[in-house]
Structure formats: C-alpha cells, structure tokens
C-alpha cells in the first residue's frame, strides 16, 4: 500500500528553495512519511551549516503530519535510508538536463541496494528553473528572490550576504 511507505528525500539543500518545498508537499500526498535528509554532495562547500539547512525545513513544516527533517554525512545514502527504515528515495526532476545525473545516481544506488526504489517527482513548472546556486547568485547581486525561496531563507541569505 503506497500510503504506508516511508520515503527519504535527500539533498544538499543549500539553501532549500520553493522547488524543494513543493517536492516535499507532493511526496506527502503519496507517502505516509517523508524524511527530508540534509546532506552534502562531496563537491560542494555549503554556505549554510547542517543545522541551518535543517532549520529552514523545520520552519516550513512545523506541525505538519508525516514530515521529519534529519541530516547525515560521511555515509552512503542507501545505508542511511535503511537505518531509518525508508523504503523509497524521492528525487526531484526539473528538466531533461537533470536526467543524466539522476540516472547515474539511481542506478548506483540500486547497485548498492536493490530493494530501495527511487521515485522521481516533478516540481510545479513555476519552479522548474530554480536551483540553490541560482538563488544564491541572484540574492548576492541584489535580485529579488522572494518568489523563489521561503521567507526564512530570504532573510538568512540577506543577513549572510551582508556579513
Ligand atoms: N527544486 C529546485 N532545485 C532543485 C530541485 C527542485 N525540485 N531538485 C534539485 N534541485 C537542484 C538543487 O538546488 C541543486 O542545485 P545546486 O547544485 O545549484 O545546489 C541541484 O539540483 C542538485 O542538488 P541536490 O538535489 O541537493 O543533490 P546533490 O547532488 O547536491 O546531493 C546527495 C546529492 C546528497 C543526495 C548525494 O550526494 C548523496 O546521496 N550523498 C550521500 C553519499 C552517497 O550515497 N553517494 C553515492 C550516491 S550514488
């Protein structure tokens, strides 16, 4: 039964955007539990700490049933997913350009653990061009990001970039 499934939604989320929040909400329509798992891709040096990135999600989903926000590092995603009892991995697919990377990651994760299924969800088209890097770039050059990221992120970015 789809509605008993616990899914993990992993990412760097530096910072979370409205596209990421949209994916969590869509995941909640399908799965009983969605665990947002804040991690870091080895090639990225995040602007925000693990705790800050977790706090952005907690602020958005405070009191929402079925959502948890955790972080993990120095561990394989499939191992962490198993440890918390997740049966599925959620990834967002915005455009064809995401496909190659996601395809590789999915097949590698499957090679590592064939029982964890990856499910792709498409964000609303209004968010299909957003990425965390672009949000940071636009904010750093004084552009308006209020429709791209949640208020807590907009505020934190304004403070961080001023500093
Ligand atoms: N809306 C907006 N942006 C989205 C999005 C959506 N719905 N979906 C993806 N993105 C963007 C992100 O903002 C990010 O953009 P950025 O590069 O500008 O920051 C980009 O797409 C992809 O980032 P993300 O989805 O966070 O993935 P990631 O590649 O940074 O993180 C992990 C990948 C953490 C899941 C991966 O590194 C991992 O699994 N690590 C654990 C170690 C492991 O198991 N390695 C083997 C993996 S096969």
Lay out the secondary structure.
Blueprint: E1 6-11, H1 18-30, E2 33-38, H2 50-61, E3 67-71, H3 77-83, E4 88-92, H4 96-112, E5 117-121, H5 132-140, H6 151-162
Parallel strand pairs: 1-2, 1-4, 2-3, 4-5
The structure holds coenzyme A.
Residues 10-14, 17, 19-20, 23, 39, 41, 44, 76-77, 92, 94, 105, 108-109, 123, 127, 130-133 line the site of coenzyme A (COA).
Explained architecture:
43% of the residues lie in helices and 17% in strands. By secondary structure, the protein is α/β, with parallel strands linked by helices. It has one domain: Rossmann fold. The chain has a five-stranded parallel β-sheet, with helices on both faces. It is globular, with a radius of gyration of 15 Å. 31% of the residues are buried.
> Span between N and C termini?
49 Å
In spatial order, strands of the major sheet run: 3-2-1-4-5
Number of strands: 5
The coarse silhouette is globular
Radius of gyration: 15 Å
CATH architecture: 3-Layer(aba) Sandwich
Instruction: Write down the domain tally.
Output: 1
């Amino acid at each position: 039964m789809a509605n008993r499934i616990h899914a993990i939604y992993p990412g760097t989320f530096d910072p979370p955007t409205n596209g990421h929040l949209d994916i969590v909400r869509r995941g909640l329509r399908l799965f009983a539990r969605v665990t947002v798992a804040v991690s870091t891709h080895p090639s990225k040096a995040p602007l925000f700490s693990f705790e800050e990135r977790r706090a952005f999600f907690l602020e958005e989903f405070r009191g929402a049933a079925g959502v948890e926000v955790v972080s993990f590092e120095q561990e394989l995603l499939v191992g962490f997913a198993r440890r918390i009892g997740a049966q599925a991995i959620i990834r967002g697919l915005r455009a064809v350009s995401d496909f190659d990377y996601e395809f590789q990651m999915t097949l590698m994760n499957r090679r590592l653990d064939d029982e964890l299924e990856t499910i792709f969800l498409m964000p609303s088209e209004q968010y299909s061009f957003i990425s965390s890097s672009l949000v940071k770039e636009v904010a750093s050059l004084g552009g308006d990001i209020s429709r791209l990221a949640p208020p807590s992120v907009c505020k934190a970015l304004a403070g961080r970039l001023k500093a």
